[in-house]
């Protein structure tokens, strides 16, 4: 990847709101190279058919001709910008074909909070179309972030051995010999084996067997394949040899592994998932948490069960903290491929889980052999929602509307009816109505203006002041409450405004959190404590 160079110039042709653009069209086809900067939240993009999980602070360089679309894996809960540009070779006066050094057509980089904040402020302050000078400043600021760091000496022992580790992780299903690995490292087989053992505390073949067993564990948990089929998929030609190695490493034969998984040391990368496990009677060993966004009831619940809390910054997964726990199984939500690759060296990793709460409860019920408990938990939650629905509709006037409005640093967004669990609870399970003006893009967090909110004029208003570790929405919230549009709202005049918490309503509408959200809705709409 090349950044700005004395030999060529870059010209910013456009800066678009990416979330808004993807909310209006299925995909974006790039007719020139572009940069994508994620300034808030997280999502999964499909870029040239490859899934890229991006979070706050990610800068994605995308080649000309690429296609960007939203993956259905996550709702549109992010903010970001698409910067398109042309490049010119100043030495010969022609267009310079700028590209990325990747077969996928894109590369993901991480930039500092300062860069994100400066870009977000510059774009938010632009009353109309951004002046060319500012567009160029933003583009060059971001292009500089793509300049490669000084490369490490690729001939170091550690780098050569790491190449063989990467090869084993990628090619574990194939026949691999010590001689092959030694050739990749550029050493003799005997010297390679000694140095590998000194660095990784195991022989290369032991490392390969462990990699294959870890992948076999994932297959046992995610497929119904027979043991001999899984052995072959994991790279073992001999099923009996596979069974012996599996029992030696895991402590149980493959056929008994899944039935006993609830007793293993499990690390949850999502505290909302850990909440469901506890409700089913499965106690995690450790859980990754961002304390500022984890509700108090859940922190108390985890501490009550002596669960180790792994503190993480928002949108950051510290693999070193997780690996230190020596987990026997890792269960995540959406994990970047890079993070998953690193974590899979420590334990089997389960990701791409069901998105809605009831499917997730059923999934964990099957995984942990807790089907009965899962059915009972779903019955309890649906019965509570049904009771609340009946009570609400007896109480509110016909034609009443409900709006869930998020206040962010840079403006306002309404929450689509099917975008998150708390919205599904409001609009589907409780049967409440979205104002007609906003009945579109139901899976998205949609930008809106104060004037649009005033025109929608909801009967009941749920307000979430967006909570982030990196910035706050105090100014936008103050502007909202001091605006003439706010004062004109029916919900404000009649004191039908409920302030909700990001950590609970966005991140933890789960086994216990959903009950707390329903309690808050009942108290707000029915006046019950």
Walkthrough of the structure:
The chain has 529 residues and is of the alpha/beta class. The protein folds into 4 domains: 8-145, Jelly Rolls (Sandwich), CATH 2.60.120; 157-261, Homeodomain-like (Arc Repressor Mutant, subunit A, Orthogonal Bundle); 264-353, Nitrogenase molybdenum iron protein domain (Rossmann fold, 3-Layer(aba) Sandwich); 389-526, 3-Layer(aba) Sandwich (Rossmann fold), CATH 3.40.50.1980. It contains 23 helices and 19 strands. Strands 1, 2, 3, 4, 5, 6, 7, 8 and 9 form a 9-stranded antiparallel β-sheet that branches. Strands 12-11-10-13-14 form a 5-stranded parallel β-sheet. It has a 5-stranded mixed β-sheet with strand order 17-16-15-18-19, sandwiched between helices. Strand 7 (78-89) and strand 8 (94-95) form a beta hairpin. Helix 4 packs across helix 5 (178-185). The longest helix is centred in the last third of the chain and has 25 residues, at 371-395. The relative contact order is 0.09. The mean pLDDT is 90.
Q: Helices, strands, pairings?
A:
Elements: E1 8-17, H1 18-24, E2 27-29, E3 34-47, E4 50-55, E5 58-62, E6 67-70, E7 78-89, E8 94-95, E9 106-110, H2 113-125, H3 132-145, H4 157-171, H5 178-185, H6 189-200, H7 204-222, H8 227-233, H9 239-250, H10 254-257, E10 266-268, H11 271-279, E11 286-289, H12 296-304, E12 308-311, H13 319-324, E13 329-331, H14 337-343, E14 349-350, H15 357-367, H16 371-395, E15 402-408, E16 411-415, H17 421-429, E17 445-448, H18 450-456, E18 460-465, H19 474-482, H20 484-488, H21 490-493, E19 497-500, H22 502-505, H23 513-526
Parallel strand pairs: 10-11, 10-13, 11-12, 13-14, 15-18, 18-19
Antiparallel strand pairs: 1-7, 2-6, 3-4, 3-5, 3-6, 3-7, 5-9, 7-8, 15-16, 16-17
Helix pairs in contact: 4-5, 5-6, 8-9, 15-16, 16-23
